[in-house]
Amino acid sequence: MHDARLTPARADLAAKYLEGKVKAERYVDGEVFEVFEAIAPLRRAPSADAELMTQALKGERITIYDRNGEGWAWGQLADDGYVGWIPEVVLFGVGAPPTHKVTALRTLAFPGPSIKLPPVDGVAMGTKLAVVREDDRFAVTREGWYLPRQHLAPLDTMAPDFVAIAEQFLGTPYLWGGKSSLGIDCSGLVQIALTAAGTGCPRDSDMQQDGLGRKLTSAESKHLARGDLIFWKGHVAIVRDATTIVHANAHHMATAIENTQAAIARIKAAGSDVLAIKRL
User: Fold this and answer.
1) CA distances from 237 to 48, 54, 113, 193, 244 (A)
2) Contact assessment for residue 8 and residue 76, using Cβ atoms and an 8 Å cutoff
């Protein structure tokens, strides 16, 4: 069985690269676009009230395979392979390749070289931008936006400690499918943090459980280390130290630090045991 979250295939239509692997009435090559909005929703269905599956940040590429004629496009994100419906209005022709990424939790884009000007937008950690030149304290993007230089870094920059990245999101509201400081979910937090540290990471917690690190033995699990990942059904938390975790969770409706054993007991009482502890 193919995972529908990662496979652009329906009974009526599928991506050309899947021909011979899945059955569909027709196969299309698709067209690559760039996400222009700061944060764009990728939904399960072509409707503003459909489930938010994940989000795309400005600069992400997406291959579009279908449009419904009512403002929605169906496609697959390039970075993590996620498939869903995205509003057509956020799509833009692919421009110059990005050179930098946002390393601050959030930053502001100004229309000129002054912080006294009204910002044109706010962009989130992980956003990819094409910087064309520097102007004193600012990096100037191909759109003509001026962003504080200290909030950007070249694309190949890797944060030394992904846990410290996750800790920056403390207090961020919990949002199912979210992956920014405006709202984030458990697996989004892991994905954003690991990506900042240069580690490729799938989007959802079950994918992360299957694809990241090695599973600890029962004996090893008694000695947790910073950066270990604890998985439950539909949930993941990041180990900070011997006694605490950081995770985006619906209990706190925020990203929070919690005593590890207290969290395990609380989640067990709600009906879910730990499925695995992985070490990267």
Assistant:
1) 29, 18, 40, 12, 10
2) yes
Q: If we measure between CA atoms, which residue out of 87, 250, 246 comes closest to residue 175?
A: 250
- pLDDT tens-digit series, residues 35-82: 999 999 999 999 999 999 999 999 999 999 999 999 999 999 999 999
Task: For residue range 88-105, list pLDDT tens digits in order.
Answer: 999 999 999 999 999 999
d(CA 160, CA 157): 9
DSSP 110-147: BSSS-TTSPPSEEEETT-EE-EEEEETTEEEETTS-EE
As a whole number of angstroms, the distance between CA 45 and CA 160 comes to 38
Structure tokens at 123: 């962009």
What pLDDT is recorded for position 1?
Answer: 77
Radius of gyration of the chain (CA): 20
Give the mean pLDDT of the chain.
Answer: 97
From 197, 195, 107, 98, select the one nearest 151 (Cα to Cα). Answer: 107
Task: Name the pTM for this structure.
Answer: 0.97
Strands laid side by side in the 138-141 sheet:
131-135, 138-141, 146-148
Q: Are 122 and 128 in contact (CB under 8 A)?
A: no
> What pLDDT shows up at residue 125?
98
The full DSSP string for 210-272 is: HHSSEEPPTTGGGS--TT-EEEETTEEEEE-SSSEEEEEETTTTEEEEEEHHHHHHHHHHTT-
Buried b (16+ CB within 10 A) or exposed e, 212-251: bbeebeeeeeeebeebbbbbbeebbbbbbeeebbbbbbee
